[in-house]
Amino acid sequence: MLIESMYDYRFEQPKAIMVDKCSLCSEEIFTGDQYYNFNGEVICEDCLSEYTGYFKKEA
Ligand SMILES: [Zn+2]
User: For residue 8, how far is its CA from the centre of ligand 1 (angstroms)?
Assistant: First the structure.
């Protein structure tokens, strides 16, 4: 039931076009999605904390 309604939802969004892919998890990013672009490196919202962790430094 839940899976079916999610499937239908996707089909009702004909304007959702894949614009990019997350550099970490390869998740596809569609128009309307929020994502991050760090100097050309595309990161989805789910990977943001993992990605920024690589840049974390202790002074
Ligand atoms: Zn990701």
Answer: 24
